[in-house]
């Protein structure tokens, strides 16, 4: 399998962590999705990465399959590479699973707002909308407060004491803040969240997927 990914992408990082935790080998195809050189439109009409490209026969598929939208890629991996042969990233308990997916909704939503904020910041100063930025940062602030409230102090994992999607998604958004919005004070505002994230960052799947910035050469906005 191949994963089209980008070095700062929190969404791609969730999938990379999931693949690593399941021990599924996957070739990483790193690119800049904002540049015209991107391969994403070839596989995804929404032109977004991550895209998981599954060769014929790799997962019981006759034809090549392209899977996209990070939360769906994770669901797809859970369905195709599930327990007990592979470690589960979602609980078999319905309510635990739904709680974890709700956490992913909020974490991904914070990332969505941060991406909008990132590009608004690329506009010339006098063209940036203060109202639009304030609206995005309200979502980030409210989302981070909600996530921090889900971390019981001293708990290593967010849902039912087992590592899974909620931890992956929360780790990804905090890593994205660090790489793109280092000035955002989530660690000082939420010390229990910070120590929870430090615990997750000690996992090999997190350590080998630390995000880094990338250079966007095309004019995007
Ligand atoms: N909801 C999508 C969001 C993915 C996304 O926005 N990816 C960005 C790259 S990054 O922000 O994650 O680095 C992208 O490809 N954007 C290209 C575009 O929106 O045209 C997911 O969860 O996969």
Automatic annotation (TrEMBL):
Pfam families noted in UniProt: GST_C_2 (PF13410), GST_N_3 (PF13417)
Annotated GST N-terminal domain residues: 1-85
Family to which the UniProt record says this protein belongs: Belongs to the GST superfamily.
Gene3D superfamilies linked to this entry: 1.20.1050.10, Glutaredoxin
Top-level taxon: Eukaryota
GST C-terminal domain mapped to chain residues: 93-219
InterPro entries documented for this protein: Glutathione-S-Trfase_C-like, Glutathione-S-Trfase_C_sf, Glutathione_S-Trfase, Glutathione_S-Trfase_N, Thioredoxin-like_sf
Protein name (Swiss-Prot/TrEMBL): Glutathione S-transferase
SUPFAM superfamilies: GST C-terminal domain-like (SSF47616), Thioredoxin-like (SSF52833)
Alphabetized CDD domains for the sequence: GST_C_6
């Amino acid at each position: 399998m191949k994963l089209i990914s980008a070095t700062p992408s929190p969404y791609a990082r969730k999938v990379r962590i999931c693949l690593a935790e399941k021990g599924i080998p996957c070739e990483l195809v790193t690119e800049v999705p904002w540049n015209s050189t991107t391969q994403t439109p070839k596989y995804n009409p929404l032109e977004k990465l991550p895209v998981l490209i599954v060769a014929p026969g790799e997962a019981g598929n006759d034809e090549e399959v392209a899977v996209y939208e990070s939360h769906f890629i994770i669901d797809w991996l859970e369905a195709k590479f599930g327990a007990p042969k592979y470690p589960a990233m979602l609980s078999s308990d319905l309510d635990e699973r739904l709680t974890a997916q709700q956490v992913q909704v909020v974490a991904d939503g914070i990332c969505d707002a941060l991406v909008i904020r990132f590009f608004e910041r690329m506009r010339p100063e006098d063209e940036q909308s203060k109202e639009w930025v304030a609206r995005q940062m309200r979502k980030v602030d409210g989302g981070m407060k909600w996530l921090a409230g889900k971390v019981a102090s001293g708990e290593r994992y967010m849902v039912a004491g087992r590592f899974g999607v909620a931890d992956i998604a929360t780790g990804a958004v905090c890593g994205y803040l660090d790489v793109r919005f280092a000035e955002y004070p989530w660690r000082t505002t939420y010390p229990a969240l910070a120590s929870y994230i430090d615990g997750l960052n000690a996992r090999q799947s997190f350590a080998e997927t630390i995000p880094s910035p990338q250079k966007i050469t095309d004019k995007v906005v």
